[in-house]
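The instructor's notes for this session suggest beginning with a concrete chain rather than abstract definitions. Hand out the sequence below and ask the class to guess, before any prediction is shown, which regions might be ordered.
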Amino acid sequence: MKLKTEYKVGLVGVLTIALLYLGIAYLKGQDIFNVETNYYTVFNNVEGLYKSNYVYLNGMKVGYIKDIQNMDAHGDKFLVKVSIKSDIVLSKDSRIAIFSSDLLGSKALKIIPGRSGVLYQTQDTIPTIAESGFMDQMSQNLAPAVLRLNSVMANLDTLLVNVNNVMDSKTQANIRQSMENIKLATANINRITLEVDGLMDSEKKKIQKIISNTESITSNFKDNNEKLTSAINNFNAISDTIAKAKLGNTIRETNMSLTSLSNILQKIERGEGSVGLLLKDDKLYNNIESSTKKLDDLILDIKTNPKKYVTIRVF
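After discussion, reveal the predicted structure:
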């Protein structure tokens, strides 16, 4: 029995619709060959969540988001329907959280499994917890850095504007002149360095001789170390002897004697006392000189005429 053309067209249409449905379901993440269990959960914010986003359990895909509906007119709460593979059982202390599933910021749900023996049943509502994923933490950490970077960029822009205002043609000419001066100074330093090198080469022999003499002097000090030590000890002994001799008292007494002698000489200089009169009074000097002359004449006369002064009588 041959099928009519209408039946053939209808059969092809049904198969096409079935394949299309299976394809769309597969693209939505639905596993059409496995029985699914539906659960509900409630979020205050579903930003980044869409239908068909995956649900993970310990990193493995175990389901998908089947539907998202708002629970009030203000959009304060959202009811999310998830479909989980029927071979996955969830205990009553399990929770669901939103996390970033990739570096692009796509959102997904993950199940934090519990350990109680009581299991959720189909259509039960699973509580949610707030958990920050890697990208969320990175965004939170980068936000202050971005703000600081924006501030730095604004300051840098202001600095560049100020630099442009300051760097007029005159300033640029001064900078070029300064660079030329630096270049000349560098050339002078190089020239001086070459001259110093040449001087060092020409004076190398003298420097070597000075070093040799220094080494010789050091060697002499080393060879005469015992003699120098003995001389230092002798000097110490002399110092001790001088200290024991009360040289300070002797010097003070000498100063007192010199002071007295100075006072005597000053009195003599002023003509005070016999010695002062003798030195300063010309009359006394003349009398002494006259008396001396008369004494000389008397002695000469006695020698010449002794009989005049001496009488010899014979009895």
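Then share the key points. The helical segments are 5-27, 134-166, 169-202, 204-223, 225-244, 247-269, 273-280, 282-304. The two ends are 233 Å apart (CA to CA).
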